[in-house]
Specification:
Layout: H1 2-10, H2 13-23, H3 28-49, E1 53-54, H4 57-67, H5 83-95, H6 101-124, H7 128-147, E2 148-149, H8 151-169, H9 178-194, H10 197-214, H11 219-246, H12 248-261, H13 272-275, H14 283-290, H15 297-300, H16 303-319, H17 334-337, H18 340-359, H19 364-388, H20 393-396, H21 398-411, H22 426-429, H23 434-480, H24 484-488, E3 498-501, H25 507-511, E4 524-526, H26 535-543, H27 549-552, E5 559-562, H28 568-579, E6 582-590, E7 603-610
Parallel strand pairs: 1-2, 3-4, 3-5
Antiparallel strand pairs: 5-7, 6-7
Helix pairs in contact: 3-6, 6-7, 6-8, 7-21, 7-23, 8-9, 8-10, 8-21, 9-11, 10-11, 10-19, 12-16, 18-19, 18-21, 18-23
Length: 620
């Protein structure tokens, strides 16, 4: 028996069977289990060898709101994410605060969306090639957005998975596959819950692909899918809006934040210095607002003031249009517009599109037309985004992500697409000269070699960029283990220090990603930025006796400003203009002069009134 078992193992029969089971085409529950296991392996490997962080402080702020970091009580008002998700996170944090549920929720959405995409790959076409192609999709497309977790890209990935499930479940010429359709709508709803504006972005990007998949013959299915999705969107939007409007304080803040969002990082910012006097602001006040510091309620709060300010900005924009990006021929080449990893991925997506067109046989023209129309839509969309605001990488990255996803989806259907056959008599009527065959063969070899060279070059650049990003994340994790030491030493055996963070995405704030959610931090952090003047912000001010806000920060031993040196002069001007006070900022902690903490870049100041009060609005 032992001899037979040894022969079976060493004759590679058992591994061969396992490998055949791994890559074979399968359907239904088997396909779903295959997809779940493969993604469990891939994501497990990523989390073992890589270190993810949040791309922006928006996610960190929403994590701290939902976990109760600011107030000590979890809250479901995440502002940018639907309150239904906020309530679930609030319940989870109240039940067990030892888990970072916000991070877990983002990773879970990624895992579910990738499992849906892998399920489509294996159910449509199994085999080594497609197991390899899906793994390549994960490594090329997904690693970046896992290293830089962000709720916008998470929502787009969920929406893309839902869209592919819907088009596959409603494939023309086949009866509707309702489990796929229901799952597709579930992912679409999840996308709306995570980030509502992503739904419109995906609809614009995916429209040419949807037309190609529906073949225009099944327009009723396409219309029904659109109406159903619109219904889901409106219901979820209505629930979220009703929740915020039901609470007068959150309703006022929502409107205030909406108007503020029309100003920050848009062309209207150019006119802030001219519009500032309309609401009683100085040039310094306008500059601080443009830098996302508008925490003083007496100066910046109030919906009427923000509405007047926004109206003035719009009037100025109409009389003197803001400079926009003039059209350039370089805009037709999207990688020239994109930055960093989005640029590399866009080139790879274009190369994958070329491969799809070359491999589709009789459907070559159909794929080519779809890709060309899609590319035109992408160019117009990017120009629009550049003119109304900006095109951050987290938005630009979604375009090549979608192209790579549909190319993978198309590839799984190549076996069922008839390849072009020569017309009867064509070969005999027009025999190809032997010399021309040789030229075509060499041309194909040269083009193929060029394609491979470009692909490997972009892969190399992308791999280096991802490796560098992971190294930076690892360095941040290393710093997080020691950065709280100097903060703890500020007030030993006394009050917990209150930190007033001036906007610059400090290393200390980034390190909070790695801080255990169940542990109480050695400091209180006053929220700033878009959460200013919210009920949560006001609650923090009441808890720490920070009324009136700006004056309460002066001459207090437990209040420290976390900021760069560039904020010293604007803050001094702010106190002179509004309160007639000369304020001196004393450096209490400069980690740059501490060799063991110089990589923490920690700068803490305290504010003290100097001399007597001077007339408001004057300078000494």
């Amino acid at each position: 028996m032992h001899q037979i078992l040894s022969q079976t193992i060493f004759s590679h029969v058992w591994p061969a069977k396992c490998l055949r089971l791994l890559v074979a085409r399968r359907d239904g529950v088997q396909a779903l289990l295959w997809a779940a296991v493969v993604n469990l392996i891939l994501m497990g490997g990523f989390l073992t060898f890589a270190t993810p962080v949040y791309e922006t402080n928006d996610d960190l702020t929403m994590q701290m709101i939902s976990s109760g970091f600011y107030t000590g009580h979890p809250d479901g008002h995440l502002v940018f994410t639907n309150v239904l998700i906020g309530w679930v996170l609030q319940f989870l944090y109240e039940t067990w605060a030892g888990c970072n549920w916000y991070l877990f929720y983002l990773l879970a959405v990624h895992y579910a969306a990738l499992t849906a995409i892998a399920f489509l790959v294996v159910s449509r076409r199994g085999g080594w090639l497609f197991a390899f192609l899906y793994t390549g999709f994960f490594l090329i497309v997904e690693i970046h957005i896992l290293l830089h977790l962000q709720f916008t890209t998470t929502a787009f990935l969920a929406g893309t998975a839902g869209l592919l499930l819907l088009v596959d479940g409603l494939e023309p010429g086949h009866p509707a596959h309702w489990p796929k359709v229901i799952a597709g709508f579930a992912f679409a709803g999840l996308m709306c819950l995570i980030r509502e504006p992503v739904a419109l972005l995906l609809a614009v990007i995916a429209y040419p692909f949807l037309l190609e998949r529906s073949a225009l013959a099944k327009w009723r299915r396409l219309l029904g899918m659109g109406l159903a999705f619109a219904g889901i969107f409106l219901v979820l939007h209505g629930i979220n809006r009703w929740t915020y409007q039901h609470d007068p304080a959150w309703a006022e803040f929502s409107e205030y934040n909406r108007m503020r969002g029309e100003i920050h990082v848009t062309p209207l910012e150019k006119f802030i210095p001219k519009a500032a006097p309309a609401v009683g602001w100085s040039d310094n006040d306008g500059w601080m607002f443009s830098e996302f510091y508008f925490s003083e309620p007496e100066v910046y709060a109030g919906m009427p003031k923000m509405r007047l300010f926004l109206d003035k900005l719009k009037i100025l924009a109409q009389t003197e249009p803001a400079s926009s990006h003039k059209f350039s021929a370089s805009f037709l080449f999207l990688p020239a517009i994109f930055q960093d990893d989005a640029r590399f991925l866009m080139i790879l997506a274009m190369l994958n599109g070329v491969w799809c067109v070359a491999a589709t046989g009789a459907f070559r023209r159909r794929c080519l037309v779809t890709l060309l129309i899609s590319y035109g839509v992408f160019v117009l969309l990017c120009l629009y985004l550049l003119n109304i605001a900006r095109l951050p990488e987290r938005v630009a990255y979604n375009i090549p992500l979608f192209i790579n996803a549909i190319c993978l989806y198309w590839a799984t259907g190549f076996y069922s697409w008839p390849f072009a056959a020569p017309r009867p008599g064509r070969a005999t009527a027009f025999p190809a000269p032997r010399g021309r065959d040789r030229v075509l063969r060499w041309a194909a070899l040269v083009l193929g070699a060029l394609w491979v060279g470009l692909y490997l070059s972009c892969l190399s650049d992308l791999a280096y960029s991802l490796w560098s990003a992971n190294q930076q994340n690892r360095e941040l994790e290393r710093v997080s283990h020691k950065i709280l030491g100097p903060v703890r030493a500020l007030m030993p055996d006394r009050k917990t220090p209150i930190l007033i963070a001036m906007p610059f995405d400090s290393v200390l704030e980034q390190c909070l990603f790695f801080y255990p959610t169940a542990e109480k931090p050695p400091f209180f952090l006053v929220p700033y930025g878009w959460i200013s003047h919210s009920p949560l912000f006001n609650q923090v001010l009441e808890q720490h006796h920070l009324r009136p806000y700006s004056l309460s920060l002066l001459d207090r031993e437990d209040v420290f400003f976390l900021m760069r040196a560039k904020w010293l002069e604007p803050l001094g001007i702010f106190y002179r203009e509004h309160y007639g006070l000369n304020v001196r900022f004393v450096a209490c902690l400069n980690a740059d002069k501490m060799p063991q903490f110089e990589d923490c870049h920690l700068h803490l100041y305290q504010a003290h009134v100097v001399g007597t009060k001077i007339p408001i609005g004057t300078t000494p």
